[in-house]
Amino acid sequence: MRLVEQARSIFAELGYSVEGNGPTFRAEREWKVVHVNTVLETAELSDESGQFHCYVAQPEDVDELETELRRRSPEYEWAIIVVDGDDYQVERAPPGPHATA
């Protein structure tokens, strides 16, 4: 349950209002609603609708999670936040324009 608490705290610190209890919740700020899912195994990927989804995972789960998300190619934009102890980082942000050199 610690991962869920950390996920809620991260979004609250970023200025989002957090709604819902449990491992999935909504984080809302101004016009943006993010569906947040704390992932302990890739079988827990969201099938919910919505434009933005964020998966919060531990470091050992990130590679498999990203592979599964790319395989499923969901219709929504997604990001992964990696929580390692009290630190976190965005491992993969929503897609944007691709630069070429």
Write out key terms for the chains shown.
alpha/beta; 101 residues; Trna Endonuclease, Chain: A, domain 1; 2 helices; single chain
Molecular structure report:
- With 101 residues, the protein is an alpha/beta fold.
- It has a six-stranded mixed sheet, sandwiched between helices.
- It is globular, with a radius of gyration of 13 Å.
- Strand 2 and strand 3 form a beta hairpin.
- The C terminus is likely disordered.
- The chain has a single domain, classed as 3-Layer(aba) Sandwich (Trna Endonuclease, Chain: A, domain 1).
- 23% of the residues lie in helices and 36% in strands.
In CATH, the architecture is 3-Layer(aba) Sandwich
- Biggest sheet details: 6 strands, mixed
Computed CA radius of gyration, to the nearest angstrom: 13 Å
State the shape. Answer: globular
Give the rounded overall mean pLDDT.
84
The helix/strand series, from N terminus to C terminus, equals HEEEEHEE
Uncertain residue ranges: 97-101
What is the fold-level CATH name, i.e. the topology?
Trna Endonuclease, Chain: A, domain 1
Order of strands, widest sheet: 1-2-3-4-5-6
Overall tally of structural domains? 1
Distance between the termini: 44 Å
CATH class: Alpha Beta
Name the helicity range.
Answer: 10-25%
Strand content: 35-45%
Q: What's the β-strand tally? A: 6
Distinct helical segment count: 2
InterPro entries: DUF7116
Pfam families: DUF7116
